[in-house]
Write a structure and sequence with these properties.
Blueprint: H1 14-36, H2 42-49, H3 53-59, H4 63-87, H5 92-106, H6 112-115, H7 123-145, H8 155-165, H9 173-191, H10 206-211
Helix pairs in contact: 1-2, 4-5, 4-7, 5-9
């Protein structure tokens, strides 16, 4: 018999709830501002979020601190998506393609090229990056074993493809998203060409991808 937890969750006070909302506003604004202009001042984030600069500095001591948090949040989102794909016991290709679409929608890779090297990488973030690499590798291997993915595709290829898709900046947000998915559909078609001529050159290595974050 499974016993359910009956303790009610204590609601946050009005002040704490407002602080949580402000924090989410700040991070969403920072993603938008720094994706468009990595050199933008931190005051632009506060203005975009509609909060005072003092509210921002109470949470993040510097621009580097905010960028580090954004990168860590993005890694958590990506890791959750790849683990969800690995837990999907249905069609291997459908699980992989769904994973790629969700990564595109959550912005996985959108800040990598724009912000790499602009904030310090902690050891915890490096370890999380290795966990992401291993999980993505398992997903690729499973899809290859099902005969649904080109055998030479590696983790670095996935990273670079997502980054390129996020460089599409045409129209408003809705139009941009549709175009990104249009070209993802073309990428996915190419990834399924398992009997095609081998791709030229090797994929990016973990060291090459990780090296972009060094100052």
């Amino acid at each position: 018999m499974v016993f359910m937890e009956t303790t009610a969750r204590v609601p946050m006070s009005g002040r704490k709830a407002q602080a949580a909302r402000n924090d989410e506003l700040i991070r969403e604004a920072a993603r938008a501002v720094f994706t468009a202009d990595p050199g933008a001042p931190i005051s632009a984030v506060a203005e975009h979020a509609g909060v005072g600069i003092s509210a921002l500095y109470r949470r993040y001591k510097s621009k580097e601190d905010l960028l580090q948090r954004l990168a860590d949040d993005g890694m958590d989102r990506y890791l959750a998506e790849v683990e969800a794909a690995l837990a999907d016991e249905g069609d291997a290709w459908a699980a992989f393609a769904g994973f790629m679409r969700r990564c595109l929608d959550i912005g996985a890779g959108s800040l990598t090229m724009r912000l790499a090297g602009s904030f310090p990488v902690t050891e915890a973030m490096s370890e999380k990056g290795r966990a992401i690499h291993r999980a993505t590798q398992r997903l690729l291997e499973r899809t290859k074993e099902a005969g649904a993915l080109r055998p030479e595709i590696e983790v670095g290829d996935v990273s670079v493809m997502l980054e390129h898709l996020h460089t599409i900046r045409i129209g408003d947000d809705a139009r941009m998203n549709r175009l990104q998915h249009r070209y993802l559909a073309l990428f996915l078609d190419a990834l399924r060409l398992t009997d095609s001529e081998e791709l030229p050159g090797p994929p990016p290595t973990w060291q090459e991808l990780r090296g972009r974050y060094d100052d």
